[in-house]
Structures are given as C-alpha cells and as structure tokens.
TrEMBL record:
Belongs to the PPP phosphatase family. Residues 340-409 have a biased composition (Basic and acidic residues). Residues 334-409 are annotated as: Disordered. Its EC number is 3.1.3.16. This is Serine/threonine-protein phosphatase. Residues 417-653 form the Protein kinase domain. InterPro entries: Calcineurin-like_PHP, Kinase-like_dom_sf, Metallo-depent_PP-like, PP1_catalytic_subunit, Prot_kinase_dom, Ser/Thr-sp_prot-phosphatase, Ser/Thr_kinase_AS. Pfam families: Metallophos, Pkinase. PROSITE patterns: PROTEIN_KINASE_DOM, PROTEIN_KINASE_ST, SER_THR_PHOSPHATASE. Keywords: Hydrolase. Signal peptide: none annotated. One of its GO terms (cellular component) is cytoplasm. It comes from Acanthocheilonema viteae. GO terms for molecular function: ATP binding; protein kinase activity; protein serine/threonine phosphatase activity.
Length: 697
C-alpha cells in the first residue's frame, strides 16, 4: 500500500466522485486508479489509528447510520443535512454491500476524512468484515471494477477502523449495540488494532448486538450471532458507563430513526428505500450545542424502484437530551401492500390470453414461411406430407395452448386480504401478517421478494409447489402465489402461507428452556420434516430456530423459509452448501480432503459433550439416553450418522406416541401411532395434512 496521497490527487478524486452523481456515464475505474485508492487508504489509516478505538468528539454533530452502497442517496442526504466541512458528522458503519456503488461510497468518505480529518469520523460496522462483505456484494464489486486485490486491501483497512464514538462524554455511539463484556469505556479505548471481530466477545457485540423490547436481560440474538439486550440492561449500562444515551444503527426502521427501550436508545438508518424493498425513510440524528436532538429525514418514492428523485425533507423537532420526552415524527408512513382484486386478475388473464394468441400466430406465420421456402427448394409430395404433419403438430400445440390458458384461468382466484402489516424482514424478502377474507377466512403470512426478470420463477416456489403435492405436516404449506410488476420493470413475487405466530427461537426467548418432552416433540418433527426433504433431494441449507415455525399451544412444528434451498441434481456438492467464510487454504484444497482416519478422530463422544467447553448449554441437563442419541447424530461420515427413519424409530421418542403421555395436562393430539408408522416407512403414504386453524392463534 502506498504511503500518502497528494493534495491535488485528492481534490481531483473528490471532484470526479461528485460529478458521478449527475453524470451516470462516468465510470469510476476509468477516472480513479487502483494506486490512488491504495494511497488514499494508507493516508486514512494513519489518521484513524491516531484517533483511537473510541473516538471522542464534541457537539454540534450529526450522526449518520447505514448507507449500504446507496451513493446517490447519500449525496441527496448531504443536500438536506449539509456537507463536510460545514457540518461535522460521525458515521456508524455499513458503508458497503447490497447497494450498487459501495466502492464509490467508501472512497468518497475516505477522501473527506483525509481532507477534513476533524470534521468527519467513520466507525466500523458489521459489513466491514470479510465474513459478511464477501457475500453481500462488495467482493464482487471489487473484482468487477479493480480486481480481488482491492478487496483484500480493504479488509486490512477495515481492521484498523475505530469501533465506537463518544459525543460530549454523554452519548455513546456504535454500529450494533451493548455487550455483556462491557463494564467500562476504557475497555473500548484499549482495543488493540488491527483487529477482526470473530464469533464472540466485545468486538462482535459492538457491531452485531440489537436492542429488544421482549424483556430486561440478555437474550441470544435471532441473528445467530451476539446478543439482544433489554431495557434493564440498557439502563444499568447507562448508569455504569455514565452516559445518557446510546445511538446505534444496524437495523432498518420505517421512519429512518426509532426511539427504543425507554427512549434511552436511538436506532438510526440512513439508506432510504433500502435495497429497493423496504419503503423506509433515511434519517440522521442532529445534536446541537445545547444537546438538543432533532431528526432529519430523506424519503424517496415508495416501492421496489431504483429511481432516486423528488426527495421529501422532514425536520422532526426534539427535546433536550437529558429529558426522556424526545418527540417522534409527526408524519408516520403508511405501509402499502397491494391487494389483488378480481378485476386485476381478470385483466391479467386477458393479457395472458392475448400474449399467448400473439405468440401462437407468430409461430404459425413463421412455420408457414418455412414451409413455403421448403416447397420452393424441394417441391413434390414429400413436402406436402411434411406440411400436413407440421400443420397437425401446430394444431396440437394450439390445442395445448388453449388448454393451458383454460387451466391458468381456472387456477386464478380472487384474493381479498386485510390488515397487512410488516411482521418480519430479512435480507432478501419481507414477511407481512394479515387476514385472508376470500376465498377462505384465515390468518396468513405473505412473503414478498423482488426480481428484475419478468420470467423469474424462484427456486423456493418450485420446491414449495412440489412439496405441496405431498402435504407433509411438518413442512410449511404454500397457499397461493401472485406477482406484481412495477414501473421500473421489477417483479414482486408474493407467496401466501399459512400463518404461525412464533418460531422456535421466539418460543425459547418467551418461555425459557424447553421441557424434555417439548425437546423430544420438536426434535422428532424436525427430523421427520428433514427426512422428507432429503428423500425428495432437497437441501434446505438454512435450518435454524428462526426458520422452524411453531404453534407452542398444540406443539406443531413446521420447517419454513426455502429461500436458500437447492435441488442438487448435477451441481457440484460445494455449491450446494451456504458459503459464509472459509479459510483460503481450505477453499483451494491445500490441506486436501480428510481421510477416514481424520473423520474417525472427529467423532463426538459423551465425554466431550459433558466437558466445560459447553458453558451454560442445555446439553448438560439432558439424560444419558439423550447424550447417546446425540453422539450418533453428530457424526461426520453420513454413512454412519443416525438420521432419517433410523432416527425417528429410536426408543428415546416412544413416550410421544403413548396415549397416557400428557403435555400441559392434555394428550398430544398432533401425533398419533399412524404418524409414527408413516414416518418410519419413509412417509410414502402421508396422513391427512394438518391445516393451521386460525382460532388457535
């Protein structure tokens, strides 16, 4: 990496990057060289290493949340809140990934940092780590524009970024949140850089943890990494750290900001209409000389559109920082979810008919021309016979097309949905809860995802359609599917599912440790569903508590979220697995593949499971039979691993099918002897599928 960057080069880079906002034809890699970016990073690294791991700044200042490569929106935000050096700013991380211009975003901010080091401060987010930005776009963007070497250089730079900020000694800022390991601000000051957040500890919590309103304590995070913390933890931390407020980013919030956990915490998110999916505002926190807090918002047109125009500006008044009454926005956005009406469905059917008729006519005309050309070339009776055969075949295709149209029209139904509201959001889709009023009356979950391809047929839809034919009671049931096209040619695919109120992770959080009977009940159903997927050659790839839907009242469990699933026909086995982060030497097979002896050495024993490496795990509370069952499951070699029917018929689960067994004072109604017999027979003939009754919710 170069040692420094010349002032004239820096000014030219800033000018070029600002010009790119209005002149779309300018390509960054044609105007700014790799060597110039490396020199910029080198200079910025020196500045940031001198600032310390905990940056201490004074007011007035503006706090900016996630940007995620939405470079044009960032400049629109600057048009509202002001620009550096006129305004002092602190950014809370996540400059890259998911948006179209991650490199432009981070390079522009680094240019400002080098030119005005005391007016802009940049913290590290969870996307400034290789395990994350290898997957969500930044890696591919680096390769496309400059080569993989730049990606590696950025990882080295990210390891040297500050981890948190302290404003006026009273407001603590970070990307993620608090940590159970944090008892003093000196712990952040003493973080030695370069450093890389791993899987646990203070570093990972600062960029990954989240607040929750579900309780007062610490909870395992539904993200599968770090923790969630409640109001009691926050209040205790504010007192212990001698601060008044925590400002963090990391989560999409509808207004761009949200007051949480007793108004002692603000979540700020600055990427409007995030990833074209969320219809959210972007916002910043403004803190003036008197520690008065206001919020400024940027809105872009709703819907999954990439058009960035006509921003709306909203300044939201606030109160003194030391007072708890911080006023929220007066303009609450309305969630708009399309309801397919009968008229729309009829129009779609008619449009589809016209499209199919036009295709059939074009095909006929093309065939006629081909036939005439063939007659001219060859002539004779053979060509006449060929023409007759082609006409017959064409008639067959036309009849098939007409039948398909009839089937399409027959399969169209009118869906009337009410009270749809955002229930949960993920990386690639949103889930809405609502009431289906027609053609049947029940609670539903509507999962929406977007694509640029008009003929897009997600693998999830293909898999669920196939599974629906078999009605397995431990697989979520797809009820309906519809699509909507937006003006920017993006296609929204909506999947309508039966609704389950909780997932297994939420059950664990709400009710605490599961009883042994519940563990058996949910485990048996999980393995039954997984055996059915394996039998049908489906690799789910993302089975975790958050994707296991549960009706805790009845004890029913269903495997859900097939968005990452694959049907591995001729696919290389490595591509079927989820890629998160692998050591380079493993990726290129320097170490080779494990031998049978290596595999045998990895076999789990009850002695290993019972040692102190599993601190605080429930595994210590299960009986010897459960230990022995677990050791047979945790086997590397799939030939020796206990799974499928052999697992389901294990005597450990016998009490589930004993009519005398009581769960919460009642017999287990969701499982019967017939279920057991079907399961160990491979579910060749499935019993009647259990439909979730809305009255149970």
């Amino acid at each position: 990496m170069a040692t420094s960057i010349a002032t004239e080069t820096l000014d030219r880079m800033i000018s070029t990057l600002e010009e790119m906002v209005t002149k779309k034809e300018i390509q960054m890699n044609q105007k700014i060289t790799l060597e110039e970016i490396l020199a910029l990073m080198s200079t910025a690294t020196i500045i940031m290493m001198e600032e310390g791991s905990l940056i201490e700044v004074d007011v007035p200042i503006k706090v900016v949340g996630d940007i995620h490569g939405q470079y044009e929106d960032m400049h629109k935000l600057f048009g509202i809140i002001g620009k550096v050096p006129d305004v002092k700013m602190i950014f809370l991380g996540d400059y890259i990934d998911r948006g179209p211009q991650s490199i432009e975003t981070i390079v522009y901010l680094l240019c400002l940092k080098v030119k005005y080091p005391d007016r802009i401060f940049l913290l590290r987010g969870n996307h400034e780590t290789p395990a994350v930005n290898r997957i969500y776009g930044f890696y591919n963007e680096c390769i496309l524009k400059y080569g993989v070497g730049l990606w590696w250089d950025f990882q080295s730079f990210f390891n040297r970024m500050p981890m948190a900020g302290l404003i006026a000694k009273r407001v603590l800022c970070m990307h993620g949140g608090l940590s159970p390991h944090l008892t003093s601000l000196d712990q952040i000051r003493q973080i030695k850089r370069p450093c890389e957040p791993l899987d646990r500890g203070l570093l990972i919590d600062l960029v990954w943890s989240d607040p929750t309103n579900k309780g007062d304590g610490w909870f395992y995070s539904p993200r599968g990494l770090s923790y969630s913390f409640g109001k009691g933890v926050l209040l205790a931390a504010c007192k212990m750290l001698k601060i008044d407020l925590v400002i963090r980013a990391h989560q999409v919030v509808q207004d761009g900001y949200e007051l949480m956990v007793g108004k002692k915490l603000i979540t700020i998110f600055s990427a409007p209409n995030y990833a074209g999916q969320f219809n959210n505002a972007g916002a910043v926190v403004c803190i003036d000389e008197d520690l008065q807090i206001t919020f400024q918002q940027l809105r872009v047109p709703p819907g999954p559109t990439c058009v960035r125009s006509c921003p709306e500006v909203a300044c939201v008044p606030g109160q003194a920082l030391i007072l708890p009454q911080i006023k929220e926005s007066a303009c609450t956005p309305q969630l708009k979810t399309a309801k397919p009406k009968a008229e729309e469905l009829k129009e779609r059917v008619e449009d589809k008919k016209e499209e199919n008729n036009e295709k059939a006519e074009n095909k006929e005309a093309k065939m006629e021309n081909n036939n005439k050309d063939a007659e001219k070339r060859n002539g004779g009776e053979k060509e006449e016979e060929k023409k007759t055969a082609e006409n017959e075949e064409n008639g067959k295709h036309r009849r098939n097309s007409e039948n398909n149209e009839k089937n399409t029209e027959k399969n169209q139904v009118e869906l009337v949905m009410e009270d749809l509201h955002l229930f949960s959001n993920g990386i690639f889709s949103n889930v809405y809860k609502g009431l289906l009023k027609k053609p049947q009356h029940r609670l539903i979950a509507v999962k929406k995802s977007w694509s640029d391809q008009s003929d897009h047929n997600p693998m999830e839809v293909q898999i669920l359609t196939m599974l629906n034919r078999m009605h397995h009671k431990n697989i979520i049931k797809l009820l309906y599917k519809f699509s909507q096209e937006y003006p920017d040619q993006k296609i929204c695919t909506a999947l309508v599912f039966e609704f389950f109120p909780m997932n297994l992770h939420e059950v664990r959080e709400r009710y605490g440790p599961l009883s042994i009977l519940d563990i058996k009940l949910y485990t048996w159903q999980l393995f039954r569903g997984q055996a059915h997927l394996e039998k049908n050659n489906i690799c789910h790839r993302d089975i975790k508590p958050q994707n296991l839907l549960v009706n805790h009242k009845s004890g029913m469990l269903k495997i859900s979220d097939f968005g990452s699933s694959k049907v591995p026909f001729d696919i290389d086995a490595k591509s079927v697995m989820i890629f998160f982060f692998l050591a380079p030497q493993l990726i290129i097979n320097i170490l080779g593949y494990p031998t049978p002896r290596d595999i045998a050495a990895m076999r789990v024993t009850t002695k290993v499971l019972q040692n102190n490496d599993f601190l605080g795990d429930l595994i210590k509370h299960i009986d010897q039979n459960a230990f022995e069952l677990l050791t047979q499951v945790l086997v590397y070699d799939p030939i020796d691993r206990l799974s499928g029917q052999r697992f389901l018929e294990n005597s450990y689960f016998n009490e589930l099918f004993d009519p005398q067994t009581k769960r919460n004072g009642q017999r287990i109604k969701i499982l019967s002897k017939k279920d057991f017999e079907c399961a160990i027979a491979g579910d060749e003939v499935l019993p009647e599928s259990t439909i979730t009754d809305t009255s149970e919710m």
